[in-house]
Amino acid sequence: MSDAxxxxxxxxxxxxxxxxxxxxxxxxxxxxxxRREDAALLTGRAEYTDDHEPPGTVSLAFVxxxxxxxxxxxxxxSAAEAMDGVLGVYTWGDIEASTSPGxxxxxxxxxxxxxxxVLATDRVRYHGQPVAAVVAEDRYRARDGVAAVDVxxxxxxxxxxxxxxxxxxxxxxxxxxxxxNVATSAELGDADATDDAFEAADRTVxxxxxxxRLIPSALEPRAAVAEFDPDDGFTVTMTSQSxxxxxxxxxxxxxxxxxxxxxxxxxxxxxxxxxxxxxxGEAMAAWCARDLERSVKWTATRSENYLEGAHxxxxxxxxxxxxxxxxxxxxxxxxxYANVGGYGLGSGASMPARYGRLLAGQYAIxxxxxxxxxVFTNTAPIHSYRGAGRPEAIYVTxxxxxxxxxxLEMDPAELRRRNLIPSDAFPYETxxxxxxxxxxxxxxxxxxxxxxxYDDLRDRSGTTxxxxxxxVENGEMNDGRLRGVGIANYVESTGGGFESGLxxxxxxxxxxxxxxxxxxxxxxxxxxxxxxADALSLPLGRIHVSEGDTEAIPTGTGTFxxxxxxxxxxxVVTSAETVLSKARRxxxxxxxxxxxxxxxxxxxxxxxxxxxxxxxxxxxxGDETVSFAAVARAAYSRGLPDGLEPGLEATTxxxxxxxxxxxxxxxxxxxxxxxxxxxxxxxxxxVDDCGERVNPTIVEGQVHGGVAQGIGQxxxxxxAYDEDGTLLTDxxxxxxxxxxxxxxxxxTDATVTPSPLNALGVKGIGEAGTIAAPPAVVNAVCDALxxxxxxxxxxxxxxxxxxSDERGD
Length: 809
Ligand code: MCN
Fold this sequence. Notes:
Elements: H1 3-11, H2 17-21, H3 38-43, E1 58-64, E2 70-76, H4 78-81, E3 86-90, H5 92-96, E4 123-124, E5 130-136, H6 139-148, E6 150-155, H7 162-167, E7 182-189, H8 191-200, E8 203-211, E9 223-229, E10 233-238, H9 243-254, E11 261-264, H10 280-292, E12 296-299, H11 302-308, E13 315-323, E14 329-341, E15 367-376, H12 390-408, H13 412-419, E16 428-429, E17 435-436, H14 441-451, H15 454-460, E18 482-494, E19 498-505, E20 511-515, H16 524-536, E21 543-547, H17 564-591, E22 598-601, E23 604-607, H18 613-618, E24 625-627, H19 628-635, E25 649-655, E26 660-672, E27 679-689, H20 696-716, E28 746-750, H21 768-785, H22 796-807
């Protein structure tokens, strides 16, 4: 039995059933390993932030603004302070009197705009903004304390629509430093060239559309447990997608050095972007822990998460496409008002300014111009939500293409086909500054069209208004519903920034892997292990992956932007390769040969050519094989070769040069009941290309999740504020997150076009579904109803009204 095998047996449970499956063909990368993290998640063994309860933990709760916009005339905390079990009641005055700046970091804005205070100063700018904080012995008494705080408000007029906030001179100004409520204005592309393209083109089509505002609905709400030790500083256990990012932001808000804070993020029950952002709750927990020298826990209720956790999307766009009669797309222009909310959160206020970079989609368009205004309103702050600008851009382009096809009386697939960037044109630079690394758009599209039986469906789309149930020509029962088919081509920019990856070989040959990313549902424990197992040619069971603790690794960036595999994956693989190269030198010393003569395979170092006279000449010892585990042991023993220090580990800071562009085609068929407005998605098909796939099952899972959210946006989800800025959708009974029964089966397929930008050839996949699904669904419904456009979400009422309007009812 080899060392590797005996060690696996000793670990028992670590031996993964997958190791015995034999479907890996010697490699794990590309195989359908089962997710290692699932056993703990499914059996309830996984620990989440709210499970963390250091001795003496007390509870934090917030008094939140009841108004969308108001001045604060006074806050009476005396009744709350007198309550049994209440330990502290805090307002902005307490923060101001402390050593902490108490404001969340803000970047990317031109004007003098105050950053979000952890507690309101003298004015509230959105419903749910934290106004005061109460800490009590338990969460019930903390909430009783909250109810006892008396805040006197002077309500102000509010504005919630970004276009109105920027263009209507009668609406209130939210910040003095932001005239017309505009936080940023940005242009991408060439305005003159685009004007010329529109003048030269045979036709122009236009569309006005809304990209509906969404709330991230992760199963686990945000939470933090902050501990403070005057000698050791803060330990903040929290729901985070980016522990090192949160350490930096907490340091900013608290006014301390990063070294004084340790952030630990245990299992995280979904994030979708908003657990990468820095909000008041977590910062206040830390501030209170220092003030009280007690461990302070804050766990958002669902409604609090909805009121204050960063929302997503919320664009109003006017866009146009210049197209020739033969279908050549010559130009695209778009003007967008993007909602920022009542305060900028981090870089959230400037994020929409970059959304136009993806407006070319998959098409060779000579001229594009995009103007974006990001606008303050009396609504919760907006930041990146799964897709973060890419769904907004692709929705504009893919809707315009369908509207143009209608105008030209051309099949929408054919119009797309005629304008696709050809596969030999990569790297391809678009007129809006994106450089696509690689792509084969036509193959993915044709695969999608064939799988959905597009040509047959086109003959049947928009069939009938008749609800008599009679047989139609192709022999199927006519149930009176209108059939439509929609397709959407997308690109997804993935990667960005640097990531750190540490690989440490233990003296018994097992391998610990740490990364600066933090999985919150994506399955890194499995996929990073696959990558490192292959890089070290070891069984999967020997690799142990951890993330989520700022003390485990010097620094890191985090999990967002579908970047973990391409940046974090390459970081851990590069570290594994460095480790292997050192291990080879140690093995060579053990074998008493030159390192160049040592080969490595399947957990063993061997002297090449040991049978022949060459080996004898080289003086190789009789035991010409040494196991990886034996080398690991040697690495921690005395007598290493000259120049080698003990230990066997490496840390890599991997930075990707460029951006990798995932792409694909999604298609769906719908049946719309014109009598009720009900939309049924009968088939949904996704063909995605994220380069080499580390684990196709996990990739498909990511596509499923993304498509579910994309269908949620297309069909059900819409944040609603009333004109005073009161959030009406503050719980799951009023905010339409789709349930399993609301979703169709999702069929997946793939093409594989490796990225030339990284050695693994991978691209990200985490957001593809949220990008492609909204236009695919809306295109299908518009096809069924034979209409140019209807805004999301396609609720029964909205569709029914649209049908009634079209029929002139
Ligand atoms: N993968 C792969 N091969 C590839 C690409 C990815 O096997 N070529 C695997 C990865 O190794 C990883 C998973 O697919 O296990 C996703 O990888 P990647 O695309 O690199 O994305 P990230 O891990 O960086 O995840 C971020 C992305 C984003 S931005 C959001 S938002 C999001 C998402 O992933 N939120 C999620 N997926 C989510 N999934 C769950 N369950 N919950 C969330 O909150």
